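Quick review question:
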């Protein structure tokens, strides 16, 4: 007489388990769909604007090809006066097939002497094009540097410094061996740098201070642009390593929000989708920093001609485009 009630109880328990499992599966599916929605929304904001007559291209490429970038970092903080000069200007060559990349920082004070524009520091020209027509600033700046250096640049990516600060916080900070005590205060733009020398975990604002530090008004040693370039590359490498540890798109939620709000590029949306969804497979495991001998002769930086030539060759070799380089030394401030 007691068997039927036991069977009913077992069925109720099993039904409850099935309902819980079904709810979990449904919840996971909804969350995954939400993350992919966020990814697509962020990608649309970062990607090159679509033109009305652009063909719709949903064809997935068989493989992701080697490419070159011009990476620019601008300071658009409140109190910064709206200046769009580039504090970071970097050439990047990336080969997803070998999972390797090369980085070359261009000094922000490097003298450039284009034929069609006035001679200025290298950090001037994105701001020039942005003020002239912000909707065309990225393609015009990319074309300018490509023609000036005689080096084919596939894409340009512009990020403001909030992207760095927020990304580092989302990743739980970075472990940095700070090379010197750094102190600098400027109430006008809200800069308050106070870092101690030594190995430590820095939050987003501290990492931003670390890569931007140039001079002191608090008795600590000043920093050269060359040391800043090394710090910027060090930070980029750590961020890429941490992002590469993400398992699946679900961990990208906060990062995608940050990227969508703070990054602009001329990269097609379909390419960005493929890169983001395949990042763990293609992210560079080897990142090489290319060095330039440089000298400061107020108010400009001048670079060693042979160093720059070799660096551009190395970048081209990474992307398989050596034959397309044509050097134009008369447009660049080089050491005599």
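Suggested answer, residue by residue:
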């Amino acid at each position: 007489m007691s068997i039927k009630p036991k069977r009913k109880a077992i069925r109720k328990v099993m039904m409850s388990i099935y309902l819980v499992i079904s709810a979990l599966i449904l919840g996971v599916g909804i969350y995954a769909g939400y993350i992919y929605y966020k990814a697509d929304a962020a990608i649309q904001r970062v990607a090159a604007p679509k033109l009305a007559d652009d063909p719709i291209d949903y064809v997935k490429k068989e493989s992701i090809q080697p490419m070159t970038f011009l990476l620019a970092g601008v300071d658009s903080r409140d109190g910064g006066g709206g200046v769009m000069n580039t504090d970071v200007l970097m050439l990047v060559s990336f080969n997803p097939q070998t999972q390797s990349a090369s980085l070359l920082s261009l000094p922000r004070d490097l003298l450039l002497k284009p034929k069609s524009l006035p001679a200025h520091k290298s950090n001037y020209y994105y701001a020039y094009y942005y003020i002239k027509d912000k909707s065309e600033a990225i393609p015009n700046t990319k074309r300018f540097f490509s023609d000036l250096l005689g080096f084919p640049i596939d894409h340009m990516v512009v990020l403001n410094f909030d992207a760095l600060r927020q990304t580092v916080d989302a990743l739980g900070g970075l472990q940095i061996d700070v090379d010197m005590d750094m102190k600098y205060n400027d109430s006008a733009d809200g800069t308050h740098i106070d870092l101690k020398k030594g190995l430590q975990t820095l939050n987003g604002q501290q990492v931003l201070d670390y890569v931007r530090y140039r001079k002191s008004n608090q008795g600590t040693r000043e920093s050269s642009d060359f040391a800043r370039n090394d710090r910027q590359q060090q930070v980029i490498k750590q961020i890429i390593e941490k992002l590469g540890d993400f398992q699946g798109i679900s961990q990208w939620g906060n990062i995608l929000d940050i990227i969508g709000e703070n990054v602009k590029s001329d990269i097609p949306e379909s390419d960005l989708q493929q890169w983001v969804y395949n990042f763990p497979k293609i992210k560079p495991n080897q990142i090489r920093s290319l060095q330039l001998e440089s000298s400061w002769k107020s108010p400009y930086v001048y670079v060693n001609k042979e160093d720059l030539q070799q660096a551009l060759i190395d970048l081209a070799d990474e992307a398989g485009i050596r034959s397309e380089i044509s050097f134009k030394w008369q447009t660049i401030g080089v050491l005599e």
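Why it works: Residues 3-46 form the longest helix (44 residues). The two ends are 104 Å apart (CA to CA).
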